[in-house]
Specification:
alpha+beta, Helix Hairpins, Heat Shock Protein 90, 7-stranded antiparallel β-sheet, 5-stranded mixed β-sheet, 49% helix
Length: 486
């Protein structure tokens, strides 16, 4: 099942089905328990009425056993012999015995000895009237009766009953057990009706849940489908200037659309930057290659006219440009700098010492007593320092100064000159690739415009910043700030 809507509808339907089945079972169990308890209470009342008569020594033959169809009664003695049963009771289960025929002792009861003597009967009636004052009368057990489920056949009709067993003790000390039943037909009918209603309504309810879930999911995923179609169109047309539609809601889908558009913007910027890079690199490489080729062709035809120093200079410039382009490519590919300890003060002195032929001497000042070590790539940081010095030498008039100091947990390196400086509107633009503010300069004097862009990229990947401001000497002051090594 590949559709999200279908999976959501199926999942919601299954969850609701499980919940409804569990709730339905709980309702049926509670209903059945309540109705069974009610039937048990009815059976207990019927059993205690008969037990009360036995406690008063009413003869078995004269027991009022109530309605035998609704409350069948079976009375047994201590040996589980049947001594009295309801009229028309033909069969019974779930009690102490399945017999429904009274034994020989049923002809006499607890309070009689000769049923044929009318005088005795009169005496029995008199005794019944006086039994409340007889301290030797029997008693009914006050213990909780025992309940059981069974069946009884009364006048040919078989039904399920809830039986309650109550003990009664006669004045003669004979213990009798009365089993009285209450019908479970009402409980079975109620449970059956509720179960039938649940089974009939469950499919319809699940169908409604599935349909509602399908429609809601479809409506919720409609913006996602719009995003997908637009992305497919962008992929087919390769037009990175297009954007996916953003819904007006503030939910996850809206955030997805915004993130997608941000990704497209970053991708468009990256592609445009790559295209400009390729175009500018091709343009920058064309000039030294063409100049070198021209000099070599002239030298081949007229050796006496060969400008060997110029050819060497063009070769060196071409080599430096190729090295810069290669480093930019590695940085764009996500190359991470090393984590070696680099003493920035020592590295500055080393770079300055190798520039003895510069037209303007460089003054170096390293603060004492502060840690000026940073973590990173020694070679890449040396390239940054070299590019900053090259830029300062190119624009300075009489002086270039380098200062290295610790500021809190950071290490700060500043390269200042006394040249014309950088106008405030151009202070971010000079860090773009292949940008030169003085377009009238020759390429030999001005370089390719990659030095400062390389320097900022390297510093950023080391977790630092590179900015430009006005120098106290009147020119430009480039400030490099890197986290100190802890």
């Amino acid at each position: 099942m590949r559709s999200v809507r279908a999976r959501a509808a199926l999942g919601a339907t299954l969850v609701v089905a499980v919940a409804l089945v569990a709730a339905g079972l709980a309702v049926l169990l509670v209903l059945r328990s309540n109705l069974t308890d009610r039937a048990g209470l009815e059976a207990e009342v019927a059993a205690r009425e008969v037990a009360g008569q036995l406690a008063l020594d009413v003869p078995y033959a004269r027991l009022d056993l109530g309605d035998e169809e609704t409350h069948p009664v079976q009375v047994t003695d201590e040996r589980r012999r049947v001594v009295a049963v309801s009229d028309d009771l033909e069969a019974i289960t779930g009690t102490g015995t399945a017999r429904v025929t009274p034994g020989p002792t049923a002809s006499t009861g607890p309070g009689t000895h000769d049923d044929d003597d009318d005088d005795d009967d009169k005496h029995d009636d008199t005794d019944d009237d006086k039994r409340d004052d007889d301290p030797g009368r029997g008693e009914v057990s006050s213990d909780e009766p025992e309940f059981s489920n069974g069946t009884a056949t009364v006048d040919g009709d078989r039904a399920d009953y809830r039986f309650a067993a109550v003990e009664a003790t006669t004045s003669a000390g004979v213990t009798l057990t009365v089993h009285a039943g209450a019908p479970l037909a009402a409980e079975q009918e109620a449970v059956g009706s509720v179960r039938g209603a649940m089974l009939a309504g469950l499919p319809a309810l699940l169908l409604v849940v599935a349909a509602v879930t399908w429609l809601v999911t479809r409506r919720a995923l409609r913006p996602v489908e719009g995003i997908r179609r637009e992305l497919a169109a962008i992929t087919a047309s390769q037009d990175l200037g297009r954007r996916v539609p953003e819904p007006g809601s503030r939910d996850e889908i809206a955030r997805l659309a915004r993130t997608t558009n941000e990704t497209l913007s970053a991708l468009e910027t990256s592609v445009d930057r790559q295209r400009r890079f390729v175009a500018d690199a091709s343009h920058e490489l064309r000039s030294p290659i063409a100049s070198l080729r021209t000099q070599l062709e002239v030298g081949a035809a007229h050796p006496e006219l060969l400008d060997l120093p110029g050819a060497v200079a063009d070769t060196v410039r071409l080599q430096a440009l190729a090295a810069d382009l290669l480093l930019l490519a590695r940085l764009d590919a996500g190359e991470r700098p090393g984590r070696a300890a680099v003493d920035l003060g020592a590295l500055v002195r080393e770079e300055v010492s190798q520039r003895a032929g510069d037209r303007i001497p460089v003054e170096v000042s390293v603060a004492e007593g502060g840690a000026v070590e940073v973590s990173g790539s020694r070679g890449q940081l040396a390239r940054v320092i070299g590019n900053l010095l090259d830029n300062a030498e190119r624009h300075a008039e009489r002086s270039v100064a380098v200062t290295v100091r610790a500021e809190g947990r950071d290490v700060c390196l500043e390269v200042a000159d006394d040249g014309t400086g950088v106008p405030p509107p151009e202070r971010e633009r000079i860090f773009e690739r292949f940008v030169r503010l003085d377009d009238a300069r020759t390429r030999d004097d001005g370089g390719a415009g990659l030095g400062l862009a390389l320097a900022r990229d390297i510093v950023s990947r080391h977790g630092g910043t590179l900015t430009v401001d006005t120098s106290p000497r009147g020119g430009a002051a480039f400030t490099l700030r890197l986290p100190g090594r802890s």
